[in-house]
Write a structure and sequence with these properties.
Elements lengths: L5 E7 L5 H13 L5 E7 L8 H8 L4 E4 L7 H13 L3 E6 L1 H10 L7 E5 L7 H13 L5 E4 L5 H6 L7 E3 L28 E6 L8 H8 L9 E6 L5 H11 L5 E5 L4 H4 L5 E4 L8 H8 L4 E4 L4 H5 L5 E3 L4 H11 L7 H10 L2 H17 L7
Parallel strand pairs: 1-2, 1-4, 2-3, 4-5, 5-6, 6-7, 8-9, 8-11, 9-10, 11-12, 12-13
């Protein structure tokens, strides 16, 4: 009987966002396939609290912190290399360019199989474009490249990567945690009237998610008997700009920025409509979570999103189309679509157990080709 692999997830994180929750959900789900995992969190010196490490430890995962004092730290390579050597039957699975960079260097000269998941690139600055270019170069040393959206395949092929190494694995969520019958977060705790119509989103507050565009569209709504409010869960670099824009538009009193939340399963049921205004995406967990929670949906037609909602009664609009977003918000105030089909779609296609089954097949295929580590 073949020995099951032990997966070493290498992650450098700036907070708890979609990619982090993919790993946090995947690791325990893999145990049903007999596959154990460890999470190797590369220290982020820019954040005083290592949220991914702390959360993983709190939920009982095998997690270690890897020292890193800056953009390039030889100690990080040494620590990872030592762990790669000591862990029998190891497979390295990286998430994010920094994890890919350090794991590539640490694994040089070792016959350790390597997989990577590309959760989506953020490329608003020259530095981020450089990191994307560097990560793609490093992927030639990986045996398996997992993408969460078919949109990601083309730039990899253009770079000369082998299509046979690229595997499309859609994200999955915990459908036991995110359900339509979970008690909603009390609106009174947020100072929101019970009779308000609440739009909401869960996102990283970054340019690619378009939170300022959402606030600007929300500001065009007429205040009527429904008293529209907007609530956004998540953190990110645009928080101050969002607050300033809401103040300038006169909607700050009806906006709540909740920051990072660990109780999103109660957040979505509080909403009358979930809005995903993103300009770029891979396969957003927040959309799947809102669908599983049976929220009416407004979303942009980015990456894998149209495939996820195909045939369902959601408002699908072009990314970056402010007028379309304004119209969709206005329409949502008066139309309540049936939502049972949304949660059924997620349960059938986008569960964490299905995602774990797909990754288990990747790991077992890699393990079947595994050779002993070089001395």
């Amino acid at each position: 009987m073949p020995v099951k692999p032990h997966v070493l997830h290498v992650f450098s994180s700036a907070g708890l966002y979609g990619a982090e929750y993919v790993a946090l959900g995947l690791m325990p789900a893999l145990r049903k396939h007999g596959i154990e995992s460890s999470l190797l969190c590369i220290n982020n010196p820019r954040t005083p609290v290592q949220h991914l490490y702390e959360h993983a430890r709190a939920i009982g995962l095998d997690v270690r912190t890897i020292p890193c004092s800056g953009r390039f730290d030889l100690a990080t390579i040494r620590h990872l290399r030592a762990i790669f050597r000591e862990q029998q039957n190891a497979i390295v699975h990286t998430h994010g360019y920094k994890g890919t960079f350090y794991a590539s260097l640490a694994g040089r000269g070792m016959a350790i199989p390597k997989a990577v998941t590309l959760h989506g690139w953020v490329t608003q600055t020259a530095n981020l474009e450089l990191y994307k270019w560097l990560e793609i170069r490093l992927l030639f040393g990986f045996q398996q490249i997992c993408i969460v959206s078919e949109e990601q395949r083309a730039p990899l092929l253009r770079a000369g990567l082998d299509n046979e190494k690229i595997r499309f694995i859609q994200n999955g969520i915990d459908t036991c945690r995110f359900r339509a019958d979970v008690a909603p977060l009390p609106r009174s705790e947020l100072g929101i009237p019970e009779d308000a119509f609440v739009f909401g989103s869960a996102m990283r507050l970054g340019e690619e998610k378009n939170p300022i565009g959402l606030v600007e569209a929300f500001a065009t709504l007429k205040t009527n008997a429904l008293k529209p409010w907007l609530v956004i869960a998540g953190e990110g670099p645009l928080r101050t700009r969002i607050e300033e824009r809401a103040e300038a538009l006169g909607v700050a009193s009806r906006l709540r920025l909740l920051g990072a939340r660990g109780d999103l399963e109660h957040f979505y049921p509080m909403l009358d409509c979930f809005v995903l205004p993103s300009l770029r995406e891979g396969l957003p967990l927040a959309l799947l979570e809102a669908m599983a929670s049976a929220c009416p949906i407004i979303c942009t037609s980015v990456a894998q999103v149209p495939d996820v909602v195909a045939g369902l009664d959601v408002q699908l609009i072009p990314p970056g189309d402010k007028a379309a977003l304004e119209m969709a918000l206005t329409r949502a105030l008066s139309i309540r679509p049936p939502v049972r089909e949304l949660s059924e779609r997620v349960g059938a296609r986008y569960s964490v157990s299905r995602m774990a089954s797909d990754y288990a097949a990747v790991y077992e295929q890699l393990a079947s080709r595994h050779e002993p580590l070089a001395a």
